[in-house]
C-alpha cells in the first residue's frame, strides 16, 4: 500500500486511477484530509477503542518507533538512524548467538539461545510492521472506515464491548510489565552467576567486554516490548471487528417487518451493512496478513523452545527465569491465533443466523425470498477474515492443527534431550 499526501487537484484527478493500492490524501493546515473531508488523524475520544490506541501510541513513542506525517526531516532522520542502529545490533547479536550455539554447542543452553534468536526475529518483524503501518497511515485509515460504517445496535453490546477493550488494555500493561521483570531477572542472573546452566558462556562476551552486558539486556527489553506492542495492535483491531460482526448477527436475528415491502427494504439495508462490514474486515486483513503469517510462523518455535526449557530444568532458579518467558510465549500464541479465529467464527455464523430467522422465510413472498437469497450470497464469503498472507485463514481448526503439531514436536524434543547420566558416563570415559 502506497500513501501520498497530495493537493486537492491531484486528489480529484486520482479518483479515476485503476491502482487501488495507491491512495492519496490532502495535506492542509497540518491535517490529513480524505475525499469526504474528514481529518484522518482525528480520532473519536468518546470511543474506548480510540482511547486504547492513543495509549498504545504513547508506548510506541516511548520505544522510539513513532512516525508522524508532518514530522521534520531531522526528526525522521534521527528516528531512522536510531532504528537502523538497533536493527544492526539485533542482527549482529542473532548471528553471534547462532554461530556460538553451533560451533560451541551446549545442550543445556542451546534452547535458550535459539529462543533469543527467534525473539530477535519477532522484534524485527514487529518493528517493520509498526513502521510500515504508521507511514502508510494504516490504523487511522481503518478507524476512518469504521467510523463511517459502524453498526448501530442501540447500545446493546456497549457494556460488553467496553469491558473487552478494557481487559485487552490491562493485559497489554501486564505483558509490558512482565517483559520488564523478565529483563531484570536475566540481568540479575547474569551478574550473580546462578544461571550459568541455561545461559551460554558466550553471552557475556557478545560485545567483547563483560562490562557491556547491559547492551544485551537493553536489546532483550527492546525486542520483548516491540513484540508486545505489535501483538496488541493486532489483537485489539481484531477484537473491534469481532464486536462489529456480533452486532451485525444480532440485527439478523432481530430482522422482522409487518409487510413484505418493509421486509424487502430492511433486507436491502442488511446487504448494505454487510458490504460495509466486508470492507472493514478486508481492510484489517490488508494490514495484518503478512505480519500475522510471519509472527505465527515464528511464535510456534519460540513456544516450543520455551516449553522444552521449562520441562528440562533441574533447579528452582532456572525455572523462575523461564516462567516470565513462558507466560509471554503462551499468551502470544493464544493472542495471535485465537483472537482472529474468534472473528472468523462470528462472521461464519451470519448465514446460519439468517436461515434460522423464520420472519424472513414464512410466510413465503417471492420478492422477499429473492432479496433474501441475494443477502445469503453476500454472506457466503469463505475467505472473509484475517489470512496468513493469503495462504489460509486463521480459524479454530487451524489452531487445533498447529497445537497438535507443537505437542508432537515437544514430545520429540523431550525424548531426545541429553540425559545427566549419559553425560557423566561420557565424562568418566578415558
Automatic annotation (TrEMBL):
It comes from the Eukaryota. Keywords: Membrane, Transmembrane, Transmembrane helix. The chain crosses the membrane at residues 80-102, 114-133, 172-199, 219-243, 290-311, 386-414. This is Odorant receptor.
Amino acid at each position: 500500500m502506497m500513501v501520498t499526501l497530495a493537493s486537492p487537484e491531484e486528489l480529484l484527478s486520482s479518483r479515476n486511477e485503476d491502482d487501488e493500492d495507491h491512495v492519496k490524501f490532502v495535506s492542509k493546515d497540518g491535517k490529513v484530509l480524505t475525499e469526504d473531508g474528514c481529518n484522518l488523524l482525528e480520532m473519536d475520544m468518546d470511543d474506548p477503542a480510540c482511547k486504547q490506541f492513543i495509549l498504545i501510541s504513547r508506548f510506541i513513542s516511548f520505544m522510539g518507533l513513532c512516525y508522524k506525517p508532518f514530522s521534520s526531516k531531522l526528526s525522521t532522520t534521527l528516528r531512522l538512524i536510531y532504528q537502523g542502529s538497533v536493527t544492526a545490533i539485533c542482527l549482529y547479536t542473532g548471528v553471534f548467538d547462532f554461530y556460538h550455539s553451533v560451533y560451541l554447542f551446549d545442550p543445556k543452553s542451546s534452547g535458550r539461545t535459539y529462543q533469543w534468536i527467534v525473539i530477535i526475529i519477532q522484534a524485527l518483524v514487529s518493528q517493520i510492521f509498526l513502521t510500515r503501518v504508521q507511514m502508510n497511515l494504516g490504523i487511522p485509515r481503518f478507524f476512518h472506515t469504521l467510523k463511517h460504517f459502524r453498526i448501530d445496535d442501540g447500545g446493546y453490546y456497549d457494556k460488553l464491548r467496553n469491558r473487552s477493550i478494557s481487559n485487552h488494555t490491562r493485559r497489554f500493561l501486564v505483558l509490558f510489565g512482565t517483559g520488564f521483570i523478565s529483563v531484570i531477572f536475566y540481568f540479575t542472573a547474569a551478574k550473580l552467576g546462578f544461571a550459568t546452566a541455561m545461559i551460554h558462556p558466550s553471552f557475556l562476551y557478545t560485545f567483547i567486554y563483560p562490562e557491556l552486558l547491559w547492551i544485551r539486556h537493553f536489546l532483550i527489553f527492546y525486542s520483548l516490548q516491540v513484540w508486545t506492542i505489535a501483538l496488541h495492535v493486532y489483537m485489539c483491531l481484531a477484537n473491534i471487528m469481532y464486536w462489529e460482526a456480533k452486532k451485525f448477527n444480532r440485527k439478523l436475528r432481530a430482522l422482522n417487518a409487518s409487510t413484505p415491502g418493509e421486509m424487502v427494504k430492511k433486507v436491502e439495508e442488511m446487504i448494505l451493512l454487510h458490504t460495509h462490514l466486508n470492507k472493514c474486515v478486508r481492510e484489517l486483513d490488508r494490514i495484518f496478513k503478512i505480519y500475522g503469517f510471519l509472527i505465527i510462523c515464528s511464535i510456534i518455535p519460540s513456544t516450543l523452545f520455551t516449553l522444552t526449557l521449562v520441562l528440562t530444568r533441574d533447579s528452582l532458579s532456572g525455572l523462575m527465569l523461564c516462567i516470565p518467558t513462558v507466560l509471554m510465549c503462551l499468551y502470544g500464541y493464544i493472542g495471535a491465533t485465537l483472537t482472529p479465529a474468534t472473528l472468523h467464527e462470528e462472521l461464519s455464523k451470519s448465514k446460519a443466523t439468517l436461515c434460522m430467522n423464520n420472519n424472513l422465510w414464512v410466510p413465503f413472498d417471492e420478492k422477499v425470498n429473492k432479496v433474501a437469497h441475494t443477502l445469503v450470497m453476500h454472506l457466503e464469503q469463505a475467505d472473509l477474515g484475517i489470512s496468513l498472507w493469503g495462504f489460509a485463514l486463521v480459524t479454530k481448526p487451524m489452531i487445533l492443527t498447529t497445537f497438535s503439531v507443537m505437542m508432537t514436536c515437544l514430545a520429540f524434543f523431550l525424548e531426545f534431550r541429553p540425559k545427566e547420566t549419559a553425560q557423566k558416563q561420557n565424562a568418566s570415559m578415558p
